Amino acid sequence: LLVACCWVCIVAEKSPPIGISSKPPLWNATWTDHLKHDLLLNYDKFARPAQNTVTIVKMKLIIKHVEVDESKSMVTVNAWTQLSWTDDKLKWNKSDYGELSKINVADHEIWQPDVVLLNSAQGNSIDHYGNTHCVLNSTGDVVWIPPSQFFIFCDINMRHWPWDTQECTMEFGSLTYQEDEISLQVENESKAALMINLDPCEWEVKSAEALPVLECCPETRNMLRIRLVLTRKTPAYNGLVITPAAACIVMLLSVFWLPPNSCEKFLLIGVTLVIITLFMIYFAQRLPVFAQHIPLVVDFYVFILALVCISLVTTVISTNLSRNKKTRPLPRLLSNFLGSQTASILLLPTFKMQRMSVSSEQDSEELHERNLVSDIIQEIIEPADSCSNCTHDWTLIAIAIDRLMFLIYIIIFSFMGIILYLI
């Protein structure tokens, strides 16, 4: 009986009271919970975690996407910003917390350096960073990699568009801390930013280097200046700009090889004018109007437009020379100009042979009939018959004008191509 009573008492002590669940507790504190509780207890996130030393903040950009707005002279940089510093108040002994070497905390729970873009194009906002967790190490080192978006004013030089290279400077600094409190540095001065091609991008970051600090100006000593060199990717522009320009040049040169009285010459000139006009409209919509430097491509199309207008004038002249029937012979100056050397250069052997045959016939007639008065009277009465080849000769003059313009245009386009290549 005594044994039975003892057993009942033991069971009653171990059994839970009536109305209370016998399930285990839902919350089990881990080493991370204990560590965060101990670290953040009485932690002031608005106070710099150093007393008599300078907090070194290292910065690095991992650029994802770059967009250039030429009309606003503004560059948008989407990147991951890596900031790292040492917080003396966030150190712990790993052996006291289950060999825990690092933990993650929210970015708003600990102190952060107020590093902002000083030359930002958004004057009403300095919130460049997104919300991500910070990684704390047992040595007090903190690493924070938030997604970032920066808007920068940049002096856009459109002279070599669309094969241009732009240089922009990003100036980072602290708004509240002095140079003896925070020292902003980069991990690698020659490579302050990395470019990873995650998104389709028109621009490529050729280099990103940290510029030296200006010791003369106290306000720039606590400033980090990163120079970005951006190069435009131009595979699409090669077909969009170069191919139509080459087509316009070929059509313009082809005009001078058509017959002088051909209507297709005016058709080719009209098509070339329409193409150049459409491209001028495209340039006016694509490029900023207030740009200080006019692109060389625009100058090239403007110059081609002027050459097309000149070719239109010469085409009208050559057409009038070839279509109308001429009764007057060529002046001696033109006959001498289209001599043997000039005719061979202009590929006009017909003119030389014609003039030689006509002159030989006239010499034979003068030898046999120079004393006949009837022939002289007939030449005076019918001057048109004495110049039966005048229309043909004037047509050759029109062809010679076209060939001369062809040679001049070839020299002009070659000279322009060399200049554009050297520039």
UniProtKB/TrEMBL annotation:
<feature type="transmembrane region" description="Helical">
    <location>
        <begin position="300"/>
        <end position="321"/>
    </location>
</feature>
<feature type="domain" description="Neurotransmitter-gated ion-channel transmembrane">
    <location>
        <begin position="242"/>
        <end position="360"/>
    </location>
</feature>
<dbReference type="InterPro" id="IPR006029">
    <property type="entry name" value="Neurotrans-gated_channel_TM"/>
</dbReference>
<dbReference type="GO" id="GO:0016020">
    <property type="term" value="C:membrane"/>
</dbReference>
<dbReference type="InterPro" id="IPR036719">
    <property type="entry name" value="Neuro-gated_channel_TM_sf"/>
</dbReference>
<feature type="transmembrane region" description="Helical">
    <location>
        <begin position="404"/>
        <end position="422"/>
    </location>
</feature>
<dbReference type="GO" id="GO:0004888">
    <property type="term" value="F:transmembrane signaling receptor activity"/>
</dbReference>
<dbReference type="InterPro" id="IPR038050">
    <property type="entry name" value="Neuro_actylchol_rec"/>
</dbReference>
<keyword id="KW-0812">Transmembrane</keyword>
<feature type="transmembrane region" description="Helical">
    <location>
        <begin position="236"/>
        <end position="259"/>
    </location>
</feature>
<feature type="transmembrane region" description="Helical">
    <location>
        <begin position="266"/>
        <end position="285"/>
    </location>
</feature>
<dbReference type="GO" id="GO:0005230">
    <property type="term" value="F:extracellular ligand-gated monoatomic ion channel activity"/>
</dbReference>
<feature type="domain" description="Neurotransmitter-gated ion-channel ligand-binding">
    <location>
        <begin position="34"/>
        <end position="234"/>
    </location>
</feature>
<protein>
    <recommendedName>
        <fullName>Neurotransmitter-gated ion-channel ligand-binding domain-containing protein</fullName>
    </recommendedName>
</protein>
<dbReference type="Pfam" id="PF02931">
    <property type="entry name" value="Neur_chan_LBD"/>
</dbReference>
<dbReference type="InterPro" id="IPR006201">
    <property type="entry name" value="Neur_channel"/>
</dbReference>
<keyword id="KW-1133">Transmembrane helix</keyword>
<dbReference type="InterPro" id="IPR036734">
    <property type="entry name" value="Neur_chan_lig-bd_sf"/>
</dbReference>
<dbReference type="InterPro" id="IPR006202">
    <property type="entry name" value="Neur_chan_lig-bd"/>
</dbReference>
<dbReference type="Pfam" id="PF02932">
    <property type="entry name" value="Neur_chan_memb"/>
</dbReference>
<keyword id="KW-0472">Membrane</keyword>
